[in-house]
Write a structure and sequence with these properties.
Elements lengths: L2 E3 L8 E5 L2 E5 L5 E3 L3 E4 L10 H5 L4 E9 L2 E4 L12 H15 L20 E7 L3 H12 L8 E4 L5 E4 L3 E7 L3 H6 L2 E2 L1 E6 L15 E5 H8 L4 H17 L3 E5 L5 H9 L4 E4 L2 H8 L1
Parallel strand pairs: 1-10, 5-6, 5-16, 6-8, 8-11, 11-13, 13-14, 14-15
Antiparallel strand pairs: 2-3, 3-4, 6-7, 9-10, 9-12
Helix pairs in contact: 5-6
Length: 284
């Protein structure tokens, strides 16, 4: 399969550094980290959604959404839906403001521009709480309204793939319309896969940039929560995901330094947390 990068500067690796970690991407859309970074779980519950996560140097930020008409409301449960808490208002609009303030689209910049001083991209994980077949088209329509900021992938009639870099990489989790997304000829978002089934699906990294697994599932595979049992299972998951140019994440983990250390030692690319500021201090 032939890949085309839509930028005037074609390089094998685009690099951005953040603290002790580096994030790189390749022409075929693989993502690679040199060290573990943070994932702001249910970020919308923070006192300052998005801002705290960016200041804490989280690579990945999670927002749960429900679709209502042509709008995406950020909430974990339906009773939490509020008219002013939309994906655009909490995340997309402020990210685009940052993107424009930092010069907008820059073909010679890592990831085609930036939304923070380090130039490191962010992965915006949008967790669908409503049905994917109705939620995803609305998400794609909204993402298209932020030119240059969102990574875009186009598949051409000859089978070639063009990837237009952007500093925001969107991954869909939850009720994912996998076949709809796989068959799309153009899309702004990719799939958050599941371990092990999706990891072995042969879907390219630009389509499936992340693979996640619950802590309980990995604990069962390890025969319990003993660190000595968990460590090799975590290592295999992180290594297999990294070899494919994807980001590995474990959800439902205890949110403490002992667990963070276990994940970091396993070279898990993304460490789940509800405490971005403390995670920043831990990773420094």
């Amino acid at each position: 399969m032939r890949f085309v990068i839509n930028t005037t500067l074609v390089v094998l690796f685009s690099i951005a550094s953040l603290a002790a970690a580096e994030v790189t991407t390749t022409p075929d859309g693989q993502l690679r980290l040199t060290a573990s970074m943070g994932h702001s779980h249910n970020d919308y519950y923070q006192r300052q959604p998005l801002t705290l996560a960016l200041d804490a140097e989280m690579l990945s930020i999670e927002a749960d959404v429900f679709v209502r008409g042509d709008e995406l409301f950020v909430a974990h449960d339906e009773h939490e839906i509020r008219s002013h808490r939309t994906l655009r208002r909490l995340y997309l609009d402020p990210l685009y403001t940052r993107f424009e303030q930092r010069g907008g689209k820059q073909t010679d910049a890592p990831f085609g521009g930036s939304v923070r001083p380090s130039g490191t991209p962010i992965v915006l994980m949008v967790d669908f709480k409503s049905e994917g077949s109705t939620t995803w088209p609305v998400l794609e329509q909204q993402l298209a309204q932020y030119p240059g900021m969102i990574r875009h992938v186009a598949t051409h009639t000859d089978g070639s793939v063009s990837i237009t870099p952007g500093p925001v990489i969107v991954a869909v989790s939850g009720k994912r319309p996998i076949e709809m997304m796989t068959n799309a000829v153009g899309r702004y978002s990719g799939i958050d896969g599941r371990f092990p089934d999706d990891l072995n699906s042969n879907r390219p990294a630009h389509l499936m940039p992340m693979v996640s697994c619950s802590f309980s599932t990995l604990s069962r595979k390890a025969g319990g929560n003993r660190v000595d049992n968990l460590r090799p299972v975590l290592n295999r998951f992180a290594r297999a995901t990294a070899e494919q140019g994807r980001l590995a994440r474990v959800w439902g983990t205890p949110d403490n330094q002992s667990t963070w250390r276990l994940m970091r030692d396993a070279r898990m690319q993304l460490i789940n947390t509800d405490q971005p500021d403390k995670m920043k201090s831990f990773l420094e």
